[in-house]
Amino acid sequence: MKVAIQGELGSFSHEAAERMLPRCTVVPCARSVEVFDRVEHGAVDAAVIPIENTLAGTVAEHADLLVARDVFIQAEFHLRIVHNLIAAPGVKLSSVRRVLSHPVALDQCRDFFRHHRHIEPVPFYDTAGSVKHVIANKQRDAAGIAGRQAAREYGGKILQASLEDDKHNFTRFFLIRKVNRARKPKTGMPHYQYMIPRGANKTSVAYQVKHAPPGTLFKSLSVFALRDISLSKIESRPMRGRPWEYVFYADFLRGDDEAARNALRHLSEFADFVKVLGIYPAA
Which residues carry out catalysis? Predict the structure, then answer.
């Protein structure tokens, strides 16, 4: 199975992909839009994308792409994020003067830099990419911050493990696949019916409420409360190209049953659009 990720081999997305789909072939992509392009064009079988971090919040670009593209979430996975200081073999911590990594990773290791004030944090495009760069260029005064998989991938040495300030740092990943609209669902069922995996008990949706009448957002949420369906998350994102208009993202703890379908039908009465992003087993 070919699975696309954003970032270099050895990244946290690489680790998540192999944990979710053992024996898969990971296809690294430079940009998130390339990941979604490969899925939609059939160049890969699926993709694994980070959607939310417990410290940094939602990955905004991926949330937007889930709405814009014809893909479907089939699984989620929670990966514990452990940041490590990785350098070329033979380099000692006392020699390090610069540490490269993704800005989010640097920000999650503030205590390390507070205790090593002579070391400069340097933003880089990718965690694993920082390790790849430092080792490929044989830099003796620099290191990268990344997961253990990056050290294995590029032959790096871990100078210090578990740099992250918060040991309850997790990233939530989605497994997404292309929606095949040529495949016809059963009569009266949604087009994505055949993509729902066995044991699915969680649903992600995106919708935009109508501007009138007042109280529409409250009514949109009541469709779940009336059916005793629990929301595990809700947030809003600006709509691209439409200033001061917002899309609401919601996760609810229900699979594809009659109550969930009725809730979604009811929701459409208060929304300009409703898109089911995926129905999958909760991590």
Answer: 171, 173
